[in-house]
Design a protein that fits this description.
Chains: A alpha/beta, B mainly alpha, C alpha/beta
Number of helices of chain B: 11
Number of domains of chain B: 2
Number of helices of chain C: 12
Strand content of chain C: 15-25%
Number of strands of chain C: 10
Largest sheet of chain B: 2 strands, antiparallel
Order of helices and strands of chain B: HHHHHEEHHHHHH
Helix content of chain B: 55-70%
Structural class of chain C: alpha/beta
Strand order of the largest sheet of chain C: 6-7-8-3-9-10
CATH superfamily of the largest domain in chain C: P-loop containing nucleotide triphosphate hydrolases
Shape of chain C: globular
Radius of gyration of chain B: 24 Å
CATH architecture of the largest domain in chain C: 3-Layer(aba) Sandwich
Structural class of chain B: mainly alpha
Oligomer: heterotrimer
Strand order of the largest sheet of chain B: 1-2
CATH topology of the largest domain in chain C: Rossmann fold
Shape of chain B: flat
Number of strands of chain B: 2
């Protein structure tokens, strides 16, 4: 059983029975394997934020089940609480959740709630802060004195320190400039490699998804529209555009070439891949 | 979820009740409340009730919605009823321990309860049929004379407008912060009162920080849009006193007078 | 016609906290002018000084040295503050924190109300501004129920209702999803092309800057590059040096040039142009 996290026929309806009733997710089945990195894409309102809040039991399914290592997280209160710690959830703009007097205490909030020993808490906090590239002096500083980018790192460290089996991030790079995005990207992959954690991250950016994920899951109108390796997903670029998603520019360039009769495939999403395809074509062989 | 709460409870519409000048509506409600408190006797109450029923009918607000407005005050209504029933001196109908049920008590309870119900309903009707912005405009106008006494009426109504605008935003934010802290293992549901109050710190601190940041940004944005207090400010929708309002005002005055007359002669 | 926005050797240093070392200037000796009808994108990573620059345009900040002139009015002159802000309107990053009222049209009316215009004129301006951003159908809606892109368009309408000569936007799309971003960009382009509105767009999105008529690149408070998008984005190495990635189209052409010595022009910015260049390269 290497499916760490699984949801089966999951549906969630907000405000059921009122005029405001809204089906946020409908009959979604999805599984994440140990150590896998999954990119979850979809435009606002496609249901992805609702879906991830089921992973750690914050939302209760209207129907269907959520399983962690094969066990239903809603079978008992203890299991639901355990799910909170097994699945670490980082919300959008997590820097706005900081509240403690020092960075150390803020990062320790999660581990403390888990009831860990003080020595273990200290070890985790120090490690997490190091993973997000902050110097140890920052530990005793107030999180409110830090810059926006540093606050984001502290917030990430707060969840890293819980050492969850599954790390779920809702748009971890939202609002950051290219440098900031690159850094956050490095911290997440760095943490993932060190702990072999399963990572699921929500993003609007196809480029980020393609670069980071081994598998991409695309959501549209409360359902999973498609899933597969980045290449498989981008090969269906037309459908992605219809679902209101941004397709990387290079993929669009290749699509355009195909329309004009030069079909060298459209499953590239980085400049390197596209350059290789064009090079192959130029040198008279296909990739 | 918290954000499902609808605030202000305004139901847009085109009925005469909706179209009345908000200033007149506020005055009508005040007049009606005065009439309610002066009403005496069954006939006066019935008259007050039919006035209200007529207005509700005209407004096309479903009676079910009107009853829903009573929910928050249900406890007060029951409490008043019990208090009046058992503690009004008069002809004793039933007695047990400290409870003495009197005939006068039953009548009193009925009167008091219907008075409260009508009072709540008529204010509910005001908020159901008047947009919050029209309501604050009306208040600013009606409280206008207080400006002469250096009461900051404009600032007060501006604060109300901004509060109304930001309450849904802040509720949504509270929801989000609570979820985020729950994801870090915060527990808001167990423990005694002190433990629960303490558990709120991780929510309140970020909420205040965010509210101050928003306030700061909003102040800059308002300045950039030339806000400089109430002086010389004009309005998009000026309040107009139309013929319909005159009719409404006269009818209200007549009805209030009628309540006095009925209370005096048929009580 | 004089430039709408003119900066003469402008520097700005944030006042430093007690006991802390003085911070380097956020804006360092910048001179530039924006002509009527221009669409200028100011590009730079966080801390490059681009947001400080935006605040200087609108007299939210006044320069430590040098002068900022808005339609000839010096932002140091407090008596002209009202006119300066009326001339160069400002749109901010977070749409939630710049909407004042609970009804869309009331919010758009906020600035003209502050200007003390007659009710009829306010009505005309509100309707016009909402039409210009394509939000007329939402005028009776509550802003908090709108999408991010819609809210930002309302914020733009709120500024348009002042009938400014220029709009300065400080990262208006940073908090929006791709659909919201596209929506806002379409609105900005239309305002510039159809209404001749002067636009200064502060951004860190390359694809947005590529749509402008002129791009200014800021780095460490200084103005590093200034020119047409095709000209700026073809300077791939300079961009990378200030932590900005060129658009994928240019990066692809650059890659081909480096790997295959293809000699392709780096000025093919749009997907269409880029595909065209590669098409001819492959066929030729």
């Amino acid at each position: 059983m290497n499916e760490v996290l699984k949801v089966e026929n999951l549906s969630h309806v907000y405000s059921a029975g009122t005029p405001f009733e809204k089906v946020a997710i409908q009959n979604v089945t999805f599984a994440a394997k140990k150590g896998e990195i999954i990119g979850l894409i979809g435009h606002t309102g496609s249901g992805k934020s609702t879906l991830i809040q089921h992973f750690n039991g914050l939302l209760k399914p209207t129907s269907g089940r959520v399983l962690i290592n094969g066990e239903d997280i809603h079978q008992s209160l203890e299991m639901t609480r355990a799910a909170r710690f097994a699945v670490g959830l980082v919300f959008q703009y997590p820097e706005y959740q900081l509240f403690e007097e020092t960075v150390r205490r803020d990062v320790a909030f999660g581990p403390k709630n888990m009831g860990l020993e003080q020595a273990e808490i200290d070890r985790r906090v120090e490690e997490a802060v190091q993973i997000v590239g902050l110097p140890p002096e920052v530990l005793e500083a107030s999180p409110f004195e830090l810059s926006g980018g540093q606050k984001r790192r502290v917030a990430l460290a707060g969840v890293f320190a819980m050492e969850p089996e599954v790390l779920v991030l809702d748009e971890p790079m939202a609002g950051l400039d290219p440098v900031g995005r690159e850094e956050v990207f490095r911290f997440i992959t760095g943490y993932q490699q060190k702990h072999g954690t399963t990572v699921i991250f929500v993003t609007h950016s196809m480029e980020d998804a393609a670069r980071m994920a081994q598998r991409i899951v695309v959501m549209d109108s409360a359902r999973i529209l498609m899933e597969g390796a980045p290449r498989e997903v981008f090969a269906r670029a037309g459908e992605l555009t219809q679902a209101g998603l941004d397709v990387p520019q290079v993929t669009r360039v290749l699509m355009r070439l195909r329309e004009r009769g030069v079909d060298i495939g459209a499953d590239a999403y980085t400049t390197e891949q596209a350059a290789a395809l064009i090079r192959g074509q130029k040198e008279g062989k296909t990739c | 979820m918290l954000k499902d709460i609808t605030l202000g409870q305004y139901f847009p519409g085109q009925s005469p009740i909706h179209r009345f000048d908000p200033r007149l509506k506020v005055l009508m409600v005040v007049a009606y409340i005065v009439a309610l408190f002066c009403a005496d006797g069954l006939w006066a109450y019935l008259f007050c009730f039919s006035m209200l029923a007529l207005c509700i009918g005209l407004s096309r607000i479903r009676p079910k919605m009107m009853l829903r407005g009573l929910k928050p005050v249900l406890f007060i209504i029951c409490f008043t009823a019990v208090l009046n029933m058992f503690y009004t001196p008069g002809v004793v109908l039933w007695h047990w321990w400290i409870f003495t049920l009197t005939r006068e008590g039953i009548f009193n309870a009925l009167y008091m309860v219907s008075r409260i119900v009508m009072l709540i309903m008529c204010t509910a009707l005001l908020t159901y049929t008047t947009s919050p912005i029209a309501l604050t405009d009306a208040l600013e106008y009606l409280l206008g004379p207080l400006k002469k006494l250096r009461v900051p009426v404009h600032e007060f109504t501006m604060m109300m407008t901004i509060a109304l605008r930001f309450i849904p935003t802040l509720i949504e934010e509270t929801d989000k912060i609570m979820s985020a802290q729950k994801a870090r293992g915060a527990d808001f549901e167990s423990g005694n009162l002190i433990a629960r109050a303490k558990a709120l710190v991780p929510v309140l601190v970020p909420l205040f920080v965010s509210a101050f940041r928003r306030a700061d940004e909003l102040a800059t944005a308002m300045e950039c849009r030339l806000y400089h207090g109430g002086e010389g400010r004009t309005r998009l929708n000026e309040l107009h006193f139309a013929r319909l309002d005159l009719l409404g005002g006269v009818l209200t005055a007549a009805c209030v007078a009628a309540v006095f007359v009925i209370s005096h002669f048929w009580a | 016609m004089p430039p709408i926005i003119e900066l003469k050797n402008v520097s700005f240093t944030y006042p430093h906290g007690e006991g802390k070392p003085e911070s380097p200037p956020a804006v360092d000796n910048v001179s530039l002018s924006v002509e009527p009808g221009e669409f200028v994108a100011v590009l730079g990573h966080n801390g490059s000084g681009k947001s400080t620059l935006a605040k200087l345009f609108n007299a939210i900040l006044t320069p430590t040295s040098g002068d900022v002139l808005i339609d000839g009015m010096n932002t140091r002159d407090e008596s002209r503050l009202f006119d300066i802000r009326k001339t160069a309107g400002m749109v901010f990053q977070n749409p939630d924190n710049q909407i004042v009222a609970t009804v869309v049209e009331e919010d758009v009316a906020f600035a003209p109300e502050n200007m003390g215009l007659p009710s009829k004129e306010i009505r005309r301006r509100v309707d016009e501004a909402l039409a210009a951003v394509g939000m007329s159908a939402f005028k009776r809606h509550a802003p908090h129920l709108l999408s991010g892109g819609q809210k930002q368009r309302i914020a733009i309408a709120g500024v348009l209702a002042m009938q400014p000569r220029a709009i300065v936007m400080d990262e208006p799309t940073a908090m929006l999803d791709p659909m919201g971003r596209a929506e806002v960009m379409r609105t900005i382009l239309r305002l510039n092309r159809e209404n001749g509105m002067t636009v200064v767009l502060i951004t860190h999105h390359m694809d947005e800057a590529a749509q402008a008529g002129r791009v200014i690149v800021m780095n460490h408070g200084r103005m590093l590059l200034d020119g047409a998008p095709a000209e700026i984005f073809s300077q791939v190495d300079e961009l990378r040096a200030c932590s900005l990635a060129p658009p994928q189209t240019v990066a692809l052409l650059d890659r081909l040039n480096r790997d295959l010595n293809a000699g392709l022009p780096l000025t093919a910015l749009s997907v269409e142009q880029c595909a065209d260049v590669i098409y001819h390269y492959l066929k030729g």
